[in-house]
Amino acid sequence: MKISTKGRYSVTALYELALHYGEGAVCLKNIAKSQGLSENYLEQLMVPLRRAGIVKSVRGAQGGYMLARSPENITIGEIITTVEGPIALVDCLLTSAESSEQPCDRACDCVTRGVWEKVCDSISSVLNNITLHDLCNDKGHVSQKVGCAR
For residue 55, how many other CB atoms are within 10 A of its CB? Predict the structure, then answer.
């Protein structure tokens, strides 16, 4: 499973809003510049986040976006599923409302379905237990993987 730029950029943009929580609206231009993202793409990402009540927009010269709730009450899982949809490694784990495809005929008898279900549950659990507040507090713990500069 790979999270697309929609999910990654949404988390990054809301991280920036969390850093400025309580200071008023932040314009997309500033978020884009600070995080190295496309302003036009951020505009598109804010639409579902606003509809979901995660962010709110402010019009006018001092306008922009702000978190609709405190960073402690917004999880990374909520952000990801808002812009990406449900987290599922395989289509058979999606309900008929979440998928346009027909469910697998062998879903009830599938030997591996339980494995994929456990993996998805674990991923969801991790994402749903990390808040924007946690992310702001962990900013000093930059990944030590290859390619990540300190």
Answer: 26
What are the structure tokens assigned to 120, written together? 């998805």
Give the CA distances from residue 131 to residues 85, 89, 122, 125, in Å, rounded to whole numbers and listed in that order: 18, 23, 16, 12
Say what the pTM is. Answer: 0.82
Q: Where are the domains of the chain?
A: 5-137
Mean pLDDT of the chain: 85
What confidence tens digit (pLDDT) does each residue in 79-106 have?
999 999 888 777 777 755 554 555 666 6
- For 57, the enclosing helix (H) or strand (E) is strand 55-58
How far is it, in rounded angstroms, from Cα 139 to Cα 150? 11
**Is the separation of the CB atoms in 30 and 64 below 8 Å?**
yes
Element holding 65 (H helix, E strand): strand 64-67
**CA gap 96, 131 in Å, rounded:** 29
Just give the CATH number of 5-137: 1.10.10.10
Specify the residue for token string 């030997």.
Answer: 111
Cα Rg for the chain, rounded, in angstroms?
18
